[in-house]
Write a structure and sequence with these properties.
Strand order of the largest sheet of chain A: 3-2-4-7-1-8-11-10-9
Helix content of chain A: 25-40%
Largest interface: A-B, 66 and 66 residues
Number of helices of chain A: 14
Oligomer: homodimer
Distance between the termini of chain A: 21 Å
Order of helices and strands of chain A: EHEHHEHEHHHHHEEEEHEHHHHEE
Radius of gyration of chain A: 19 Å
Structural class of chain A: alpha/beta
Chain lengths: 385, 385
């Protein structure tokens, strides 16, 4: 069976107000990826995005982006799964390539959140939950995540102080990433003393609003070296879902979709968690970053913060985590974040991560979450050197 | 290489006011398709939809529908390309199956247009065009299609009367389809005397607003007979794009994307237009139906209406067209229509088209259009008896 490899990577900086349109953002990332791959030919485009219909009254991003890129003619369409849109767009691109119908595939994911009020964006984010049964109650997306944080702290006796290590780590890593939205060191007390957003979550527990786009070019693994000296194999691309709404799940302090997607990915790649050299996880809220460490198999339930305490998630630790700053500090242009993660893992394995480089990394994993753990896309990448 | 086959088909009636939610519509069609296939196992779900984010403030339809169907856990996400969303969702499902990663794939497409004002839906449809450069002028989607109709009539010297044969044919065919929205016979004068919507397009030149969902179950061709006595091979599934906006194209009376997608499909299937026994084309507006006959290779440019005059598009003609009533009379729940078409072609080839049955049909083609010809999905299906 054919296998897929990443042969080109591109991304825009994540910024609060890019001053750029959706298509300008997309084209910037896509051109960088195409140039990185050194390809003329692109057979198809898969676009990840969550909110352009709601915020900008713009759909049909496939043809829009193909045109903006000067590539109209080829197959192009949008793929969406809320905040995991970037992750599932990569999955769609991988499947297209494995189908044998397309050879050189561009995946690009983009979100523009600037130019809208916080109320508008907050309302848009609730499209990830069941609008009729949950959105109608008035609860916000951060409110739902706050319920998880409260329950997690209660169930496992973990303090907010411990969880706050996660954003501190991300901000530390983002200091070395020139494309990160928040290149600013913070400490635990900064998190605990930042304004309350939805009890117990404070401002620095939450990712911000940003504009950004990330893109990758995929080619068959057996021809990948024609395009790149340092291609990166996609050893697994998996998606899993869970019951959409939090209130219907028996348990909210673990994401079954993360377990399902990652267990399937480990199986497809023939790997175990201990074989993974670095991870990029979906820390839209600090507690989600901690839960990801557990649900992906790197710590027992309730023990995720222990990894942080022991320094194991640092770039020189056992399982370097969110090495470019993660959603919290690199930034979280929601529908694009899953593609940023895959692009970042690829850069690490290509040894092109600059000051963010993890030394000796050969295998990396990304986890992209849509809604409150309702959809999870996992990718395992492996260097080909 | 693996090939795909349709082993189950389901669809709701198209109605102006279903009184059903988006997920109720989806589940109705999906359960019918799953029951038709007689499968317990579903590996993944691809959901086609255009407007739920804009109209209902609901995205994340993959996890929403997987949950509504009691199938949470499996991969599920949304695929969108404006009015071709149903068509590209089938394309995504086929690629997933051909990738070898999934065996039994459910594709379902759904649109709910009721409960909203005409102004809201009209605004939603403009998401298919470039919102910043075209939508901002205030022109409507029907207005853009009216420009095509005017230019087509001028360029080829074709009368409105000739073009009006298309909706007349569709309404005739829909009389035999119990799931059609408009089961009412009309004549050419009814079209020409119906209220003007956007000159020269009149009410009966235009498809209506409807709620509906259609679904198919896909399985590998080599195991398809395990699930269905009458499986239908997907001989080709193609997507093509064109420059997004009409004003930027050198010519507006032919859709290059239809030509590209169909030429590629004929090539993949090893067939020519004369090998096709029936077609389901995207007649959102009467002129588009006529243009499809030409762009798909069944008539020279400007000569599409001649086929209608000669009775060749009738169910007992040379190239039976829109045999269940097409978008005009079966109905056009926009993001679902492309899946209705594939389901209808499959029913014809399974010999399960009831009173709509075309006798002896072995190969059928569907054409689904997104925006003003900006994206086109073409499927060629072949009976396996």
């Amino acid at each position: 069976m054919r296998e897929a490899a990443v042969v080109g990577v591109g991304m825009t900086p994540v910024t609060a107000r890019s001053g750029k349109s959706l298509s300008e953002l997309f084209v910037e990332a896509a051109k960088e990826a195409i140039s990185d791959a050194g390809v003329d030919r692109i057979d198809s485009i898969y676009v990840g995005n969550m909110m352009s219909g709601f915020l900008e009254n713009q759909e049909h991003l496939g043809a829009l982006m193909a045109t903006a890129l000067g590539r109209e003619g080829i197959p192009a369409y949008k793929v969406e799964a809320a905040c995991a849109s970037g992750g599932v767009a990569v999955n769609a691109g991988v499947k297209a390539l494995l189908s044998g119908l397309e050879e050189i595939v561009l995946v690009g994911a983009v979100e523009k959140m600037s130019g809208f009020t916080t109320a508008e964006v907050t309302s848009g984010l609730m499209m990830a939950e069941d609008r009729l049964k949950v959105g109608s109650t008035g609860i916000t997306f951060v409110g739902l995540n706050a319920m998880i944080a409260r329950e997690y702290m209660h169930e496992y006796g973990v303090s907010h102080e411990s969880i706050a290590q996660f954003p501190v780590l991300c901000h530390q890593n983002a200091l070395d990433n020139p494309k990160a939205q928040f290149q600013k060191k913070i400490g635990i007390q900064d998190v605990l003393q930042s304004p309350l957003v939805a009890d117990p979550l404070r401002l620095l527990d939450c990712s911000g609003m940003g504009d950004g786009a990330a893109a990758i070019v995929l080619a068959p693994k057996d021809t990948a070296k024609k395009f790149s000296d340092t291609p990166v194999e996609i050893a697994a691309s998996t998606v899993a879902t869970d019951i959409l709404s939090l209130y219907q799940r028996p348990r909210i302090t673990a994401f079954e979709a993360t377990k399902r997607a990652s267990e399937n990915a480990y199986k497809l790649a023939g790997l175990k968690p201990q074989d993974i050299d670095l991870i990029e996880v979906h820390d839209a809220f600090s507690v989600l970053g901690v839960m990801a460490l557990e649900d992906l198999g790197f710590a027992d339930k309730g023990a995720g913060t222990k990894l942080l305490e022991d320094g194991k998630c640092a770039r020189d630790g056992e399982i370097p985590t969110n090495t470019f700053g993660g959603l919290k500090a690199r930034g979280h242009p929601v529908g694009a974040s899953g593609a940023y993660q895959v692009a970042e893992v690829a850069l690490q394995l290509k040894r092109e991560a600059g000051k963010c480089q993890v030394s000796g990394a050969e295998v990396g994993l990304s986890q992209s979450v849509g809604g409150i753990g309702s959809t999870v896309a996992v990718h395992i990448l492996r260097g080909m050197n």
